[in-house]
Amino acid sequence: MNGLKDWEKPTVINTDKAPAYGIAVAQLKVESKCLVKLVHRQVKYLNTVVEADHGKLKQRIKPVRGFKTLKAAYATIKGFKVMRALRKGRAAIFNLTGDIRGEARIVERAFGIEPSALTEAVGPLAQSLENHEAVG
Questions:
Q1: Which of 20, 54, 115, 128 qualifies as a FRET site for 40, CA 20 to 30 Å off?
Q2: Which residues form the DDE domain (predicted)?
Q3: Where are the alpha helices (DSSP H) in the chain?
């Protein structure tokens, strides 16, 4: 929370009932690292949606036995999250063209790939899909 402006800091935090969370939140308030009016809700099932969302990520990471570096962890988790957002339609608002080329542009921006490299690679696929839809 050190890098966040006051308006970016959360006003509510949901955790399970582990005692360490209450102590940590209280310490953050004492150190003025979070808002004094921060509400800490310790309810067992409030985080169920969040836990379920990253459950698939845990399934994919477990077979590789974790990560060797923080950089590898960051890149892998970012990749999983971007691809899941695309699959679930959560990135649709950023897909300006509404097709596979738009998704390619989202991936290019997320991973810092040179613009149009991926877009050009999916060009023939997009054309094939358009032809298939026109026939069907």
A1: 54
A2: 8-89
A3: 19-30, 48-61, 70-88, 100-111, 117-135
